[in-house]
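Subject: design request, 96 residues
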């Protein structure tokens, strides 16, 4: 049996530029496999863990919020409270 491998750098530098249809197919397959095999299981396990913690907790309850909504809300509330320059706004966004 003979096997060959291509490095990520070689794929992105030479093959993906010459053959964009192959690049799209590889990226789509990778994303599909990630969603099917990894992401859904991680999300399910995370929710199961949160439910378990919430059952055991007396006073604290963990709630899950969407990251984009939270980041936008924090950024908007900070901007309205404090007059920030663009540099500081970018720094805050990077920290979030």
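Subject: RE: design request

Done. Sequence follows.
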């Amino acid at each position: 049996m003979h096997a060959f491998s291509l490095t990520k750098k070689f794929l992105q530098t030479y093959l993906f530029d010459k053959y964009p249809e192959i690049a799209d197919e590889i990226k789509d397959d990778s994303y599909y496999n990630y969603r099917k095999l990894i992401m859904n299981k991680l999300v399910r396990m995370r929710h199961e863990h949160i439910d378990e913690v919430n059952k055991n907790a007396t006073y604290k309850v963990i709630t899950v919020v969407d990251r984009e909504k939270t980041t936008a809300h924090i950024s908007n509330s900070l901007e309205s409270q404090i007059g920030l320059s663009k540099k500081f706004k970018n720094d805050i966004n990077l920290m979030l």
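The two ends are 49 Å apart (CA to CA).
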